[in-house]
Design goal:
heterodimer, A: TIM Barrel, eight-stranded mixed sheet, elongated, B: about 400 residues, alpha/beta, 3 domains, Hex-like_dom2 (chain A), Beta-hexosaminidase (chain A)
């Protein structure tokens, strides 16, 4: 460093001050400018760590994926299909007919180098979903770089990369602004779910697939499929083929092959399927094909606890489930059990007396029997919280308790040493149309849970799209964008979450418009006004997507 | 299957697809009730759906989904109301600042995007009728070219006194002609409030110099725009106010687009002009209180008995205005009510149901078929205090076929 004269020192001083100012502006810029427009990080959900610059790169016409250094062989094509989908969504909103060969080639990305360390493609609870994304790659500036432990981490990386891409209306090519990007990312919780309910309304396969696609965009990873309930039984059960006589109609049914198709479609997108068989309540539809499952013709719920056949059927269903649903957990329900039909029906009431059980003990007995059967089929069990509230200490010790009734439950579950999934209905029920996206965003699963070993027992959370007023016409606009708000709460590290929901309004509006551009009917963010409810509201008036 | 054209064959494939169903026992596709002998052709040649991408931008995948669904109901014209007061989303290479009037840089269509829509539609047998609504409904044009406004404080209609206005219209239609190949172009002409012309000094002066009152200036504007479109090889469609105000001055091949109400089509054809029917009391999809039964029963040839006049009604169109419609709710607002109108436009008059309720089951079935194809068609639903007929959510659990 040469010796500076007075004038030079003043200039250099100004230079350093200017740099300091620019640096501070950049820092403030990253944290503060989450609005619409050209500045600010617009990734949803927000990654664990993000840094970016002020340059830009183009995505080459023949942008390809390269994985020579990768241990993972992609025999099942998960990575290849994921890359095709990446290209399709990035190019889907506009015709990309610009010629990148006419641009400065040092600024054109030729491809993406992917390094995946694990050779396995098993999707399961608790796998490593982390990734590291560098655009451009530090050693190959005309390539982007993606590293992950598993192919599913890589899929998340592709998702993030797709959100960095945008169409340039001047050059008519895809570009990535604000490079260089250095992104390290992994989810806060391993269980990030969405429940769909195909009993209250049948959902055709293309609709379920559209929902699965949209889940992947928000990095949700569990589709909790509440398949059957009181109103209808739409799923084929080969062991007991009359069960699906309880469907609404012959065409509103899923074959086992359809179910396998859903599981496979989800798996390719890094999404597990948690199948639910809700017992003993919410099961009236089972008796359509097998009336002996009802306590009586006039009293049809819950399932007849006194009948051995009931447990044979449960065993058959879980056996058939185990051939298709490979997620480590199965959900056995157990919520909202009104036992009066047991005491009112003579043969059941007799059985209770013979076994010295009151209603409450019979309920416990039923749940535990069902648990035993599921355990024999190799599953771990999730049950709704009433089972814990009523007889928590009797549950199989590895039971995951699914909180839904309200706040304050998760802390008691983990204090008792059990795992928990959070879905408190006051904040995370999508069918509650009066719950705002801000409330979805601010619902913290670890509220009042401070001990680290207890925090670990909260495996994650789930937003619930109950189906009473939701069919193929309105499912997506009821799910989105509010599910996205919860998706960030479940993915992003606690200290990177906004302290006030309104701070992320612009970024969420942008994500909502991105969903629309991908053919997902996400509703406007909308205010809660006398004319609209926050859930499923139509736009009130003409305007830009980004402002509604 | 036989057809004169490949587009007839596409309709035949559509019908065949509706004969097929999945057999849950054998797990194969079957066709019941054979042998089938079907002869089919549409009653009207113009069976349209209007979409409005000015009040809300509609991304390409959504427009494609709409086009797919139109084909399922054998609709064959996508009337694209591209620009209006609120936004100007389309690229116009001749006047590149026009799309500064878009809501945002990303809520725009390049010419290549427009060509993609035309191509996607054509493959499905659907024509695209592009609309350039002038001189009203054009405030957004001035964002990029403020001289098109009468003044900064009075921004509609387009300045009739400015030659530049007609240069721009010419440039737009020239660019249109490279992409929109349908025989017709729609030049709008509806809801023109001329007060900004009389209130703005330089325009008012021009009117005096040309011995025109407001009404004559409106006529002048429309006819000038027509001349320009004719020079580009188009035939013209105009909204009905042009006919109502100066019908005998319109280019004689003008197709009058009825929207204000019933009783207009008969006057148009009596005057020897062609007509498209879209009476708002029955065929406006943004009117959420109009039931599917009303859509079904709206007869375009009402009170038109002479055969040569009947021929002048080339068809009809349901209109999905975009004030409260974006990507989240467009399909559930269009369907199933557009399907009711689609049958009115396709099926021969004597095969239509005399009472709409007779087709409830078949329409419900078609609605469920749309759902199975990934189209978010709404339940048929009753008009109750809790719901409106358009865009209603299902009220309670139940079978698709009964809702």
């Amino acid at each position: 460093m040469w010796v500076l004269g007075v004038t030079e020192r003043r200039v250099m001083g100004a230079f350093w001050v200017l740099n300091l100012v620019l640096f501070l502006v950049q820092v403030v810029g990253i944290k503060g400018a989450h609005g619409i427009g050209e500045h600010g990080v617009r990734i949803w959900p927000m990654p664990l760590s993000v840094s970016h610059g002020h340059k830009s790169l183009y995505v080459g016409k023949d942008f390809k994926i390269m994985s020579q250094g990768s241990k993972y062989k992609d025999a099942s094509g998960i990575l290849k299909d994921g890359f095709s989908r990446f290209l399709a969504v990035v190019k889907g909103a506009h015709v990309v007919d610009g010629d990148t060969s006419k641009l400065d080639q040092s600024r054109v990305l030729q491809g993406l180098n992917v390094f995946i360390s694990s050779t396995k493609d098993e999707l399961q609870y608790g796998i490593d979903e982390s990734y590291k994304l560098l655009v451009p790659s530090p050693d190959k500036p005309t390539y982007a770089h993606l590293e992950a432990q598993t192919v599913y981490g890589a899929l998340h990386g592709l998702q993030t990369l797709s959100q960095l891409c945008q169409f340039n209306f001047s050059s008519r090519v895809i570009e990535i602004l604000m490079t260089p990007w250095i992104i390290n990312d992994q989810p806060r919780f391993s269980f990030r779910g969405l429940l769909i309910d195909t009993s209250r309304h049948y959902q055709p396969l293309p609709i379920i697939k559209n929902v699965i696609d949209s889940m992947a965009y928000a990095k949700l990873n569990v589709l909790h499929w509440h398949i059957v309930d009181t109103q209808s039984f739409p799923l084929e059960i080969p062991s007991y083929p009359k069960l699906w006589d309880g469907a609404y109609s012959t065409s509103e049914r899923y074959t086992m092959a359809d179910a396998a198709e859903i599981v496979s479609y989800a798996q390719k997108r890094g999404i597990n399927v948690l199948a639910e068989l809700d017992v003993p309540g919410h099961a009236l539809s089972w008796g359509k094909g097998y009336p002996s499952l009802w306590p009586s013709k006039d009293c049809q719920e819950p399932l007849d606890v006194s009948n051995e056949f009931t447990f044979k059927v449960i065993d058959g269903i879980l056996s058939d489930f185990s051939k298709v649903f490979k997620y480590k957990f199965v959900h056995l329900g157990g919520d909202e059990v009104n036992t009066s039909c047991w005491t009112l029906t003579p043969h059941v009431s007799k059985w209770l007396k013979e076994h010295s059980m009151n209603e409450s003990q019979a309920y416990q007995y039923f749940v535990l029997q069902a648990q035993k059967i599921a355990l024999l089929h190799g599953y771990e069990i999730v049950n709704w919280e009433e089972t814990f509230n009523n007889f928590g200490n009797k549950l199989s010790p590895k039971t995951v308790v699914h909180n839904w009734l309200g706040g304050g439950v998760a802390q008691r579950v983990v204090a008792a040493g059990l795992r928990c999934i959070v879905s408190n209905q006051d904040k995370w029920y999508l069918d509650h149309l009066d719950t705002t996206w801000e409330q979805f965003y601010m619902n913290e699963p670890l509220t009042n849970i401070t001990k680290s070993e207890q925090q670990k027992l909260v495996i994650g959370g789930e937003v619930c799209m109950w189906g009473e007023t939701v069919d193929a016409s309105d499912i997506q606009q009821t799910i989105w964008p509010r599910a996205a708000a919860a998706a960030e709460r479940l993915w992003t590290p606690y200290d990177k979450l906004a302290k006030e929901a309104k701070q992320v309004t612009g970024r969420l509006a942008h994500f909502r418009c991105l969903l629309n551009q991908r053919g997902i009917a996400a509703a406007p963010l909308a205010a809660d006004t006398p004319l609209t409810q926050p859930g499923r509201s139509a736009p009130l008036e003409p305007g830009s997507c980004y402002l509604q | 299957m036989q057809a004169q054209t490949v587009y007839g064959a596409l309709h035949g494939l559509q019908t065949l697809s509706q004969l097929c169903q999945f057999n849950f026992s054998s797990r194969v596709i079957e066709i019941l009730m054979t042998p089938w002998i079907i002869n089919d052709q549409p009653r009207f040649s113009f069976r349209g759906l209007l979409i409005d991408t000015s009040r809300h931008y509609q991304p390409l995948p959504i427009i494609k989904n709409v086009i797919d669904s139109m084909a399922y109901a054998k609709l064959n014209v996508l009337h694209w109301h591209i620009v209006d007061t609120q936004s100007f989303p389309l690229e116009i290479p001749s006047y590149p600042k026009l799309w500064d009037g878009a809501y945002s840089t990303s809520e725009r269509y390049t010419m290549a995007d427009a060509a993609e829509i035309v191509s996607y539609a054509q493959k499905r047998g659907i024509n695209v009728l592009a609309e350039l609504d002038v001189p009203g409904h054009a405030l957004s044009w001035g964002k990029g070219y403020p001289s098109l406004w009468p003044s900064k404080d009075c921004q509609e209609p387009l300045d009739v006194s400015n030659e530049f206005t007609f240069k721009v219209i010419d440039g737009i239609l020239s660019d249109f002609s490279k992409v929109f190949k349908y025989k017709f172009v729609h030049l709008g002409g509806d809801e023109v409030n001329t007060s900004c012309w009389t209130l703005t000094p330089h325009v008012s002066k021009w009117l005096k110099e040309h011995s025109m009152n407001e009404s004559q200036a409106y006529q002048y504007f429309v006819l000038q725009a027509q001349k320009i479109a004719l020079l580009h090889g188009y035939e013209i469609v105009n909204w009905e106010e042009t006919f109502n105000n100066f019908g005998n001055k319109l280019s004689p091949k003008t197709v009058v687009h009825n929207w204000l109400g019933g009783g207009v089509a008969q006057r148009v054809v009596a005057a020897g002009l062609r007509c498209i029917v879209s009476n708002q009391d029955k065929w406006y999809l943004d009117h959420l209180d109009t039931t599917w039964e009303q859509f079904y029963m709206n007869e375009p040839l009402t009170n038109i008995t002479k055969s040569e006049q009947q021929k002048l009604v080339i068809g009809g169109e349901v209109c999905m205005w975009g004030e409260t419609v974006d990507a989240s709710d467009i399909q559930q607002t269009i369907w199933p009510r557009a399907a009711a109108a689609a049958e009115r436009l396709w099926t021969p008059y004597d095969k239509l149901a005399k009472e709409a309720k007779q087709v409830t089951g078949r329409l419900a079935h078609f609605r469920c078929l749309l759902n199975q194809r990934g189209i978010a068609a709404a339940p048929l639903a009753a008009d109750t205090p809790l719901t409106q007929p358009g865009r209603s959510a299902p009220l309670e659990p139940g079978s698709c076929y009964l809702q």
